[in-house]
Amino acid sequence: MNSLKKKDKVPNTNMPSVNEKCCYNPGGCFFCIIKEPNSPIRSNGIKNYLKNMPLIEDQELVLVLSGLWTMAMSQPNDKELPSLGIFECMASLINKGTTYKSWINQNQNIYIPYYAAHIVGSYTMNNVEFAIKAVDSGVLKPLLELLRGNMTWVEQRVAVRAIGHLASYDKTFKDVAIYEKEIVKLAMKLASTCVEVVYKEFVGVKDLNMRLKYHCDLLTRGVGGLEMENRKAEEWASQLQCWSLHLLNCFAIKERCLNLICEQKFLKDLSEMWGGLTNDTSPGGVGLIRVLCYNKDGRRYIAESKDVIKNLCNLSRSSDDWQYMGIDCLVLLLDDSGTRYKVLELASMCLVDLVELKTLGGKSNVGNTITRTLLADFKQRKVKIKNIGVQQVLEEIWDLKVDRKKREQNMSDEKLEEKRVMVSLMKQQGNHSFWLGKIEEALMKYNEALELCPLRFRKERIVLYSNRAQCKLLLGEVDDAISDTTKALSISSPTNSHAKSLWRRSQAYDMKGLGKESLMDCIMFVNCCFKMDSMKKNMRIPYYAVRMINKQMESTWLFKNAQLKAFVDLSEKPNQPHEISQKEQKNGRVTGILLQRKGFMEGLSSISEEPQMFGEGDIISRRKLERTRENKKAVFAQSV
């Protein structure tokens, strides 16, 4: 494919307009046939053209295919082309492209397998009738060749999409299942490695002329520059991963190949896969994990992996759109007597903060469901729980949701008002101690206020939990800060809407090195700021939030790990020429060390308000230093 590098002339693959005169041979031109007003003549012409289309040997082929792709995308439920043999035609073209390498390098034939597979996927996306026609027309084997990597990741993307659509229907699943073990293994490999492959073969290519030209054209339709190409490549890599997971979902739902899908290393990778901001409609790996949790064998495999459980716990205490899926998975594991005590220690420490949740993900009384699950036969089975921490957590939940609730049910209005006044006084005392820098003393006051505050005073409790979290952040008790902010966000209305708690939890997650969770909280914090300031003319995002978002956007970049791996591989080859500066080398080595020693990252400060001192020539002036310190004080003053 050396002849296809970016230095070659960019082809015009756009479909001619309806009013454009395409040729001087109306009887043999597809675009003239498609405009034929007489329906029988038109249908007969299209049918004959599709039948002979694989025999075309000039540039007309890719132009017609591009036009068919446009029609499939804009009218995926139109029965005309599927009834006239388009699937047989696409199968023949893909087969020709994967079989004859000399043909694929002629004219612009390199585009053909991509367009053909995309057309199949577009027509079968929502129509079982078309899916049956496609399978009967023999599209599976050619698509499988693309999935095997016969060409490149670009063709794998559309192949896994099309096969995923075929596997999603009961009437065509049996045909896909003929190759189930191979397809499952290929989909698992794609999901795990596609991001690294896309970076290595496209995004990470320093010499832009070495990028495959047809990749660039397909990504940007010939109208994008470097930034657009990279952005689209990131989007496509995420789609390739998510569509691979969708294909695996089709098998997992039918409880097929679970022993392959539940391989421990893949489960760990799965729990870290995220649709990201470029593909926010996909739940990523947690969607497949949730499906597996509905199966007894799936739960057994998942319960064996502490890494998966930890990632589910982090998701459950985040403001991610898929938070409810993380909670669902943990509840399903706890409901199963075979896995309950394997996950109880980790799950209870997380779910205890969510027992007061009202609604989440369209579900109501989520907190009550969590409570019932954690306290199932608690009094009778207390002996089975050997872990003291778990025992204390369950007793805390029992006291909060059972004993304390009973005590407060018959409390008089006068008593409630008296408690409200006392709580307000304690909060003021805590705030005063905080401003004086007496953090431990403030913490004690907030503790006393929370013990006294009736459960029904949600607004007061939100502030107390959030203020206590700020104290714990300053004392370096990061896990406790996450716990308190999560409790505050759980009782906020709507859920996850208390701005200060979001910012504080974002800081805490940042200190633990959990970039995704920190990023989502920070974005939610900014949204809350906009809502609170919606009446103001000049709305501004707090600068410290912008810095946090920039930091976490970089740390959660889809290709971050692939970039670091490529750098490590490059640094191990000292004789290989590269364009990395000394500063990048230094930063890369430091980042690599931190990633390898995750324990070292825990407890690192959040977004630093102090300027950093670098080498000679980078000395910061005293005036700038003082100004930075003043800014720090201003931000700190907003925190309580």
Key phrases:
640 residues; mainly alpha; Leucine-rich Repeat Variant; Serine Threonine Protein Phosphatase 5, Tetratricopeptide repeat; two-stranded antiparallel ribbon
Helices and strands, with pairings:
Elements: H1 30-33, H2 39-52, H3 60-74, H4 80-83, H5 86-99, H6 101-104, H7 112-124, H8 128-136, H9 140-147, H10 153-167, H11 170-176, H12 180-203, H13 213-220, H14 226-253, H15 258-261, H16 264-271, H17 285-293, H18 296-303, H19 306-316, H20 323-335, H21 340-351, E1 359-360, E2 363-364, H22 366-374, H23 388-409, H24 413-435, H25 439-452, H26 458-474, H27 478-491, H28 499-511, H29 515-532, H30 543-555, H31 560-571, H32 582-596, H33 598-601, H34 622-637
Helix pairs in contact: 3-7, 5-7, 5-9, 7-10, 9-10, 10-14, 12-14, 12-31, 14-17, 16-17, 16-19, 17-18, 17-20, 19-20, 19-21, 20-21, 20-22, 21-23, 24-25, 24-26, 25-26, 26-27, 26-28, 27-28, 28-29, 29-30
Number of domains: 3
pLDDT < 50 runs, ≥5 residues: 6-22, 577-640
Mean pLDDT: 84
**General form:** elongated
Oligomeric state of the chains in view: single chain
* Biggest beta sheet summary: 2 strands, antiparallel
Strand order of the largest sheet: 1-2
- What Rg, in angstroms, do the CA atoms define? 29 Å
SSE-based structural type = mainly alpha
Portion of residues in helices?
A: 55-70%
